[in-house]
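#struct-help
A.M.: can someone run this one for me? Single chain, 399 residues.
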Amino acid sequence: MHSASAVSWEIDDMPKAAEELISGLGSEFTPGRSSIGIIYCDADADVGEIGRILHERLGFDIIGLTSTVTFEKKNGFCDMGIVLTVITGDDVGFAAGATEPLTCDNFTARVKEAYDNTASGLGSAPRLILSFAPYIASITAENYIEALDKASGCVPVFGGVATDHWDMQTQKTFMNGKAYAENLVFLLIAGNVRPKFALEHDFAATLDRTVVITKSDGNRVERVDDISFKDYLSSSGPIPDQEDVLYHYQSTPFSVEFPDYVEGERPVVLTLCTFDHKTSSGGFLAKMPEGSKIRMNVLQSNNLEISCRKTMAALLDRMREEKDYAYSMIFVTSCNARYLVLGGAKKREAEIVSATFAGMEGVSAMGFYAFGEICPTSIKADGRALNRFHNCSISACAI
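D.P.: on it. Structure tokens below:
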């Protein structure tokens, strides 16, 4: 397997952007038997048009999503740009798919239908799923994971949720010439691929003790231990008057150990998004089952650099475990909350990723800031993954 990346800072003229991206791949890059083009790009770009042009010019599927900011190994931090990576090989197979529009009532059936149709043309069982998820207020990325797990039998899933310039109105996923607001796009990879994953957190402090969720309803936490969630939350500071509290708590995320926590698994980190003052309950972007252990943490800018370095170091260690396999592509998903907390050091994570892989010839790397990250926290001996949805995290996948 081989890869090549290119960047264009042209987001208004899509024919010009396509020319720059194709030229940036380099004349020496030759597609193999199976190829795929993956794009992370600014939300203001016409993603359907750039996908259409590149699909017609290159002759293989082009898939991707929009992001607040992207980054790439050679160019680093790519504000308001388009990043394209082409992955190709003779001993791998790629099959891209897209669901119909998703709702709370149909997402399981529609993900399975799209997965089955896509997998039928792959030739062998997929060993990795890359997920390009839409932001839909009534559905979380956890729902996409559950549906993909059910359809695939728990094949490892990596990816994240599309973002835009903070208003959550113009984010898109796309495939070839079609852009979507409510459709999950995904890539199945089969053949000689040995995915490795890394996910790390680092916090400045823990604000309160670990407590157990004793009453919850879906994603809403009502009671912990023997007190209301309101009493628990207010012990760490005053609760804002409004219902939408995401930006108030983005730097104080919660570590969560679910009831099915596996020994040695990295805890999931989730952010409090809403607070219902009538019921004294808090809403998260994932289900919060009773019996889960949670604690509130403090996230600061220097912690982000530490966790980014830890993630890249852990990924390199796992890549080196495969003595007879050459890795060629690194995907990185970081959280939009991390980007905000970075403040004046907003380029730091991109710089760390670039520096980590700078000396590795033939290895491409691309990343984006997501409204929720998707990464396995454990892989069983039989290859089945414990796929999780995360906030405030940085995750990486090598193939």
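A.M.: thanks! The longest strand covers residues 34-42.
D.P.: also worth noting: The longest helix spans residues 301-320.
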